[in-house]
């Protein structure tokens, strides 16, 4: 059988269901960032022990639990999306949660959203759209047996080992020493554990989809391994995300987390599921360009967020008279004209 005949395409109905679920997920997750941040601010103002200092006062705050519920609902949608669409499509759409967080933070956290930040939001939408258009449409894993075979390949074992080394290094050494002063430390912890979470999520979603289709996978030991790993890594991810949000500005945490998380998920997906294997060169270039546009937009949201810049500012500039410095030659010509013109009188130079 030719290689072309072995490629199984995604059902486009399932594909668009996955996209819709991913969009809903971004909305809920983006809102949850703001709600949880609002709760953490309330706790810090009430002289409670902050999450960054090891406090768990947020566990008794109803607003934090509401934010967590929003995030959980978003993750459920996100989890379902992975069962219908490729991870390299679902994950980049998380950029839309950055837009939601940016808009809501300007309204409820009094964080500024200027003209360039709004342009960044628009660029996020453009970049995400480009990635969806050029995304892979081939389905690479059909059963848990195929997935188990891919999990034991050397490439994914090496990737997982590197991620675990980073997680343990941050947990025992870098986190306690540098976590409160450098946003990268906590965000790397969230991103590395999150990239593995997506892989377990994809596997569990595959098991559930097969069970719904009539072939029960809950008698398969691999399904329960996925459940345990998923719960463990989600707990790690949420704990360090709380610390990052409590220590640093939302406009810093959200974009940096998106860039690192998305990059690692795409890398892990390429290694495990090989979703890029059958892409044409123009699609690969399109996805890379879309991702770079999105990354640029997110850093625009972050870098220029506090700059005093608005549309009225530019309008004021355009109303100012335009002045131009005269050249030496023009000055000499003006001087000669004045000297020779009788209405200015005669001047002895």
Automatic annotation (TrEMBL):
Main localization is membrane
- Name the protein family: Belongs to the NIPA family.
Protein name, entry field: Magnesium transporter NIPA2
Q: State the source organism's domain of life.
A: Eukaryota
Q: Does this UniProt record's set of keywords contain Membrane?
A: yes
**For this UniProt entry, which segments traverse the membrane?**
15-35, 56-73, 79-103, 115-136, 156-176, 183-201, 221-240, 252-272, 284-304
Where is this protein localized, as stated in its record?
Membrane
Q: Which organism is it from?
A: Aphis glycines
């Amino acid at each position: 059988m030719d290689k072309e005949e072995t490629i199984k395409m995604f059902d486009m109905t399932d594909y668009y269901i996955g996209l819709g679920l991913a969009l809903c997920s971004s909305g809920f997750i983006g809102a949850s960032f703001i709600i949880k941040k609002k709760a953490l601010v309330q706790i810090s103002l009430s002289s409670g022990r902050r999450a960054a200092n090891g406090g768990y006062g947020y566990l008794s705050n109803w607003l934090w639990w509401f934010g967590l519920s929003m995030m959980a609902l978003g993750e459920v949608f996100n989890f379902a999306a992975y069962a219908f669409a490729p991870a390299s499509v679902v994950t980049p759409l998380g950029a839309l949660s950055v837009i939601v967080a940016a808009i809501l933070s300007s309204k409820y956290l009094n964080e500024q959203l200027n003209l360039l930040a709004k342009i960044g939001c628009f660029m996020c939408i453009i970049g995400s759209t480009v990635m969806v258009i050029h995304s892979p449409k081939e389905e690479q894993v059909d059963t848990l047996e195929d997935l188990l075979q891919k999990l034991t390949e050397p490439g994914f074992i090496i990737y997982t080992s590197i991620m675990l080394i980073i997680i343990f290094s941050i947990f025992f050494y870098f986190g306690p020493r540098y976590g409160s002063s450098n946003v990268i430390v906590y965000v790397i912890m969230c991103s590395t554990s999150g990239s593995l979470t997506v892989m377990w999520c994809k596997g569990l979603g595959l098991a559930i989809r097969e069970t719904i289709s009539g072939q029960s996978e809950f008698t398969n030991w691999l399904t329960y391994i996925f459940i345990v790993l998923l719960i463990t890594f989600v707990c790690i991810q949420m704990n360090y995300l709380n610390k990052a949000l409590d220590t640093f500005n939302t406009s810093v945490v959200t974009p940096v987390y998106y860039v690192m998380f998305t990059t690692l998920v795409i890398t892990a997906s390429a290694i495990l599921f090989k979703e890029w294997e059958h892409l044409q060169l123009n699609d690969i270039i399109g996805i890379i360009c879309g991702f770079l546009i999105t990354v640029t937009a997110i850093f625009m949201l972050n870098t220029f967020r506090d700059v005093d810049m608005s549309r009225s500012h530019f309008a004021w500039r355009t109303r100012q008279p335009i002045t131009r410095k005269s050249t030496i030659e023009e000055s000499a010509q003006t001087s000669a004209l004045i000297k020779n013109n009788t209405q200015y009188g005669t001047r002895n130079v």
